[in-house]
Amino acid sequence: MGKALLGRKGNIIIGTLESKDIVTEARRIHNTSPTATALLGRLLTGAALYSLTYRGTRPKLITFELLSDGPVKHAVAQVKGNRLRGYVKNPEADADPRGGKLDVASIVGKGILRVIRDNYVSEVPLVSGEVGEDIAYFFYQSEQRRTAVGVGVLVGEYGEVVSAGGFILEVLPDATEKEITEVEEKLKGFSVSRFLQDKGVEDLFRYFGGEDAEVAEETDYRYDCWCTYEEVEKLVLMMREEIKEDKVVARCTFCKKEYIIDLGKK
Ligand SMILES: [Zn+2]
Question: What is the whole-number distance in angstroms between the Cα of residue 135 and the centre of ligand 1?
């Protein structure tokens, strides 16, 4: 379970999420390298925060996709209600840490961030490959929203997830110089994964909002795949020509659940 809080203080909208359990489950399923764990964790956290801070009726399905030329090749995070799932094409992709941090940008490389809300698709070029900045750039380019986005995963010595989470701070058009400066000050040198090492999502919300910020919504997100026989069968049928057997064992990309697909009757 990962708890998320949405609220506002003056003209700043604040969304925060603690996602350690979600990222731990993603790592367990996909057996990701430390750097790939950080990448997938950041993308899942960012997608959930996007859903949390969505204006108006939330899309039924939100997909965040990184298509890039680095060793990880392709990363996907999806949100359906409060359920999340994701995968990376090459979970073994790894890199040496840089400046004491996992070097996510170097396994991502150059490419695009594609965001799909139901049938509506937007694409922006990656500005850093570190995920947080790329999501903020997407907000600005595609939705004309000024945000600061921080997503972070701290991975331990044995590859385990020590802490994970993120925030979205959205500066509304009526925000004053004072409000903007206050936000900028809080962001200086701030690491969300370090913060969540010994503090919770409420502390994170209070760090940005102070005592008087109001929580408008509380949501529990979880990694919980929604695959079905039909969904997996559809993918198998797309490769029909290459399959000689009547029955094949196909695995869901997101949760590794196995399905026996009977092609004989099709
Ligand atoms: Zn699945």
Answer: 25
Domain co-membership, 148 together with 249: no
Calculate how far, in angstroms, residue 231's C-alpha sits from the geometric centre of ligand 1.
9
| Ligand 1 centroid distance, CA of 206 (Å) | 36
Using the 8-state DSSP alphabet, how is residue 105 labeled? H
Interval between CA 116 and ligand 1 midpoint (Å) = 19
86-126 pLDDT per residue, tens: 999 999 999 999 888 899 999 999 999 999 999 999 999 99
Domain count across the chain: 2
**247 and 165 in one domain?**
no
What token pair was written down for 223?
């990694």
Separation between Cα atoms, residue 55 and residue 51, nearest integer Å: 9
Q: Could you tell me the CATH number of the domain that includes residue 114?
A: 3.55.30.10
Query: Which residue segment(s) compose the domain that 9 sits in?
Result: 2-223
pTM: 0.95
C-alpha count within 13 angstroms, C-beta hemisphere, residue 167: 28
